[in-house]
Amino acid sequence: MSNSLLNTINDPSDLRSLPPDQLEDLAAELRRFIIDIVATKEGHLGASLGVVELTIALHYIFNTPDDKLVWDVGHQAYGHKILTGRRDIFDTNRQLDGISGFPKRSESIYDTFGTGHSSTSISAALGMAMASKMQGISDRRHIAVIGDASIAAGMAFEALNHTGVSDANLLIILNDNAIGIDPSVGALKNYLTRIKEYPNHRAPNIIKALNIDYTGPIDGHDLPLLLKELERIKKLEGPHFLHLITTKGKGLKKAEEDQVRYHAPGRFDARTGKLIPENTEGLPPRFQDVFGKTVTELAGYNDKITAITPAMPTGSSLNIMMKTYPDRAFDVGIAEQHAVTLAAGMAESGMIPFCNIYSTFLQRAYDQVIHDVALQDLPVIFCLDRAGLVGHDGATHHGIFDLAFLRCIPNLIIFAPRNVVELRNILYTASKGLAHPIAIRYPRGRGRITEWEKPFNTIAIGKGDILRKGNKIALVTIGNMAYNVQDALSQLTKEELQAVSHYDLRFLKPLDTKMLHEVFLEHRAVITVEDGVVHGGMGSALLEFAAEHGYKTPVFLKGIPDTFIEHGNVKELFRIAEIDEMSLAQELKQLLAKM
Ligand SMILES: Cc1ncc(C[n+]2csc(CCOP(=O)(O)OP(=O)(O)O)c2C)c(N)n1
Ligand SMILES: CC(=O)[C@@H](O)[C@H](O)COP(=O)(O)O
Ligand SMILES: [Mg+2]
């Protein structure tokens, strides 16, 4: 297929000059363009394919960028990027120094609001619409496009509640494909299914009941119908809600058939859609799978064990337990705040809840961790997946703040396993019952240990590990940073190596004070290495310890600097943060040369 239409569109004004009867051909070209690039460059696929017609219709009918368009999550905005001046650089999507996989204000005037975390679009677009009113701009339109899984989150409900009493010019478009990453859940999903199946049934319409004008449900792939509806709604004042039914993965048969797998499928054959299998034979397991398998195994020994995920059963591998023990493992939808307090409630009633949340999404539930869990000292077991630098999702998704924002919370134990065996053992230790809540943070992807299904061992709370002893410099790491340091050490000479100790702190809280006294008493310099922000994280904890005990030993903090780290592969990002093996080896050599 040639891109004869797509190649003429350098921004939406070019699109608006096309006659409407060419838009369906354009949709086919745009869909093919997305498939061809994502097939080799990877990224999110199904969501963008599902909104191709909507994307064209929005930019055709509305006067973007003057009219403001906000995409929720933003993983479906590839078509939007391609039509708004980024066609020729779309092959850099999610790569180091390339464009972001999400809308980003610094990237384009068409990206009105940065996203990545879900359910923000209605609030943001309502804010813009209210601002337009206050500024006397009456002809500007504001549109939020939100998915059926994202609209079920608390924040979206809060925004709808406000929208219903506002006279702002806001159009909320619900892109309802009945799936998030995994199938959508909950009573709202059931309600949406009912109104799709029986559009004329007499149950009160929730949206209308909130005083918001409702249209739909209509077929979101029917371009002429979409154009007609948007043209009509555009002329109306006040808040409106348009309910679209779409198919995630539309236009690529395999993506339509296996919507979970094709949310972000990795590499695939652009013609057939067939996945290009990764050769994983002999590779160590992913941290998430060790979590999923171990928690399921533990649940088999103890029927008080429960587990919760806010909308990430596949990503967290909790789907393993959900299959085996469907009565004790719950997907609560995109509802991180609820997930945390639900776990607190279960802990209060004597259950042993494992609450698995991606580190970055726990940011949503900070107050719940403090107010509902830690303050009441309820022994919830937080399993924080995707901690540290996650790679291509970039700044919105790196789990780099957790150590800093959790460290200041009383009662909370904080542990980072350096490998999957430690992860397995801490899950076991926590399942036996702790006196306090615990946060266990572990990274995206695979570790280095293949043999992981060993008999369980109890981990002593607050106890670090001495990995090697030297006499001049103490390296202190947490979590899988131990391996970056081990790789750096392999680059030292024998003589240099003798001067270096390596300590794995393991517990950021409570600190292993005995080990830390040894660190400060027996070395002339300390280097801390963490895959979290340096301000407030493990390095800061050691500085506080040193100050409290009057140690004057210089401490050098290595970690994520005070800037947002963008997207790229994890190795590239380690390099940027200077916590890769080369940077660490260089730092060590320079320091040793001065001693
Ligand atoms: C706060 C938050 N929690 C979880 C996620 C992970 N996540 C990304 S997309 C997605 C599903 C979104 O589903 P939906 O809104 O229906 O959009 P679709 O993918 O179907 O277009 C989830 C759970 C997120 N981005 N933000
Ligand atoms: C858009 C979004 O938030 C998710 O799709 C996220 O990209 C998943 O990340 P993982 O690939 O690490 O599960
Ligand atoms: Mg959806």
TrEMBL record:
Superkingdom, natural source: Bacteria
UniProt keyword Metal-binding, yes or no: yes
Pathway: Metabolic intermediate biosynthesis; 1-deoxy-D-xylulose 5-phosphate biosynthesis; 1-deoxy-D-xylulose 5-phosphate from D-glyceraldehyde 3-phosphate and pyruvate: step 1/1
Cofactor note: Binds 1 thiamine pyrophosphate per subunit.
Domain (Transketolase-like pyrimidine-binding): residue spans on this chain: 285-449
Keyword Glycoprotein: no
Pfam entry (one): DXP_synthase_N
GO molecular function: 1-deoxy-D-xylulose-5-phosphate synthase activity; magnesium ion binding; thiamine pyrophosphate binding
Cofactor(s) the protein needs: thiamine diphosphate; Mg(2+)
Broad EC category: transferase
Signal peptide (from-to): none
Positions of Mg(2+) binding: D148, N177
GO biological process, one term: terpenoid biosynthetic process
Keywords: Isoprene biosynthesis, Magnesium, Metal-binding, Thiamine biosynthesis, Thiamine pyrophosphate, Transferase
Catalytic activity: D-glyceraldehyde 3-phosphate + pyruvate + H(+) = 1-deoxy-D-xylulose 5-phosphate + CO2
Residues engaged in binding thiamine diphosphate: H75, G116, H117, S118, A149, S150, N177, E336
InterPro entries attached to this UniProt entry: Dxylulose-5-P_synthase, THDP-binding, Transketo_C/PFOR_II, Transketolase-like_Pyr-bd, Transketolase_BS, Transketolase_C
Cellular component, GO annotation: cytosol
Entry EC number(s): 2.2.1.7
Assigned protein family: Belongs to the transketolase family. DXPS subfamily.
Stored HAMAP family: DXP_synth (MF_00315)
Quaternary state and interactors: Homodimer.
Role played: Catalyzes the acyloin condensation reaction between C atoms 2 and 3 of pyruvate and glyceraldehyde 3-phosphate to yield 1-deoxy-D-xylulose-5-phosphate (DXP).
Family matches, as PANTHER family: 1-D-DEOXYXYLULOSE 5-PHOSPHATE SYNTHASE-RELATED, 1-DEOXY-D-XYLULOSE-5-PHOSPHATE SYNTHASE, CHLOROPLASTIC
Name of the featured protein: 1-deoxy-D-xylulose-5-phosphate synthase
Record lineage: Bacteria, Pseudomonadati, Bacteroidota, Flavobacteriia, Flavobacteriales
Gene from which the chain derives: dxs
